[in-house]
6-phosphogluconate dehydrogenase (Mycobacterium asiaticum), 270 residues
Amino acid sequence: MRVGFIGLGSQGGPMARRIIDAGFPTTLWARRTATLEPFAGTTAEPAGSPAELAAASDLVCVCVTGDADVEEVLVGGGVLSAMPPDGVVAVHSTVHPDTCRDLAQQARRHGVSIIDAPVSGGGPAAAQGRLLVMAGGDADVLQRCRPVFESFSDAVIHLGDLGSGQTAKLLNNLLFTANLGTAAAVLTLAADLGVAPERLAAVVSRSSGNSFALNSIGKTGGLERLAGLAGTLLRKDVRLLADLAEQASASGGVALDAADAALALMDVAR
């Protein structure tokens, strides 16, 4: 399978490297040529435009920031119209499920399929081939893509119809955001009660109260620093999830309340 990759950031870059190292013929495109420099010694070929990349690919993986970026690349950049028939686009970005469904309608007119395949784990996990892929879409199309996905992941979970992968990722990020607020509040309470927060973190990390959120706060040097690294992205994801819940007349309950409280603590209130 010929693979095109767009979005060579902190997570997409290692994903693309794993695909290249697995032996898949790979084409890369980036707005900034400097982004391509780390791949100069590889077998990957640079493309002059997204459309040029698409024409040379059976599968195009997109790992850009948000909904508007995905639409700009796939529609404005000509990926959908330039792909060969039976081509597949995998949206690894975390976006609204409706964005994937709307793009799928446009893709069908060109004989192209869309898979939503957001990932979890971050750049280090991508470099080690340990990402989790949450996939939504046609099972047969996913099966064609699976060997590529498995080059950078150790689990590819099919959630169901198109958009279900994005829904699962948003639910995961809602829980993570809520857990951040809870962990930060506990660490603050520890200080008020005379227990050093870093020592409590060392205890909890080996106990039943452990969480990925608590460890993230510790590794980044506090919630304020973590907010600078990921606050706006978490706000985007909580907003998307809240919109999904509203569309379904469903309640976010205490999870959404806790996530909102965490965003407020990070000064990125929804």
Notes: The longest helix spans residues 164-192. The chain has two domains: 3-161, 166-266.
